[in-house]
Amino acid sequence: MKWSLILEISQALMTARLKQTLVAAVGVTFSITMFVTLLGFMNGLNTMLDGLVLNRTPHIRFYNEIKPNPDQPIDLSEEFSNSLNIIRSIKPSTSRLSIHNSESIMKTLESDVRVKGLSPKISAQVFFNVGAIDVTGVVNGIDVDKEAELFAFRDYITAGNYEEIKQTNSIILGKGAANRMLADIGDVIQATSARGNTIQLKVVGYYESGLADYDNVNSFASIETVQKMLGEPASYITDIQVKLTDLDLAPPMAKEYREIFGIDADDIQTVNAQFETGSSIRNLISYVVGITLLVVSGFGIYNILNMMIYEKLDTIAILKAIGFNSTDVKRIFITIALAIGVIGGSIGLILGYFACLGIERIPFETEALPTIKTYPVDFSIKYYLIGGIFSIVTTYFAGFLPARKASSVDPVDIIRGK
Hints:
15 helices, six-stranded mixed beta barrel
């Protein structure tokens, strides 16, 4: 049977019951619209929340941790080698916080094709001298350009110019720390390191991550400024932060280089395992809810086609009596179902896109996330592809069972009954 004739008959059956056809199409349209909107909005939020951690967190962090010496003198003594030695209040060994031979380590890492980039860092405990009160804090010495390139540093500067901390004796204060010290941009503050060195620092900006505990303590300066504050040479580095081309490479690479360099290494997946689990669960919930909407609309199409077959039994009998076989009848009703899915799904994708545009323009202002001005939405093409494909698949199976039932109708029985 020619497909043109099948399409013509399918169109006639759909227009004959136009109200039912529109109800089915509206069901698919609503489901696809909500599917695209829900996934775009939920994954936009997930991306934003992930960014709060991932943007500022290196994939691998190399550092030296102060820890007790595992080789105690009494354990090395031959006299007590076969004895059970109990030692209390073990003190840390005289290890250094700085990374030895840091320049060679960074050159080795930069030559690795798996490494996207790296940024050296120094973390220094300080006391900010505010009148007769000392406010504790941490000054992070950073390579400003690398930090901006790899960790979106500029996105969290809410006042001032981040590049000004390249100047010696300049500092960007965490917003919480600035509020505690009543320090405005342009003010000069005094900081004393844990070693007793005092330095005058000019405030050139505010940093606000959205994490209050972090912003109350952390501030940023150039590596040279912090080295000067601590009285250390230009080779003094306490951390090497590495970004990789593939996040999944972090655990094996951290283990590999830990053994090569003989220093401590933390990978992002181990340190933030609970965070990644929460993000995966949120994504799973989004997909489950969206797919449930599509399945529900499929049941609506199934019921409507069943009713259409029941009401059109005489039409089906006539079609089979004039030469249409069971396969032709099945194709007619599957074509009706697919037409509803394609039309409803296409309109749903368009409405879903405009709904996401509308959500993206809704103001979203909170002190916890000062850099976010509107609700985040993810416009990834994969959500539209999934929604379009699933609408066709769902409507196909919703029409398959009624179509099979229609193809099994015996025209003799129907005509005799009439």
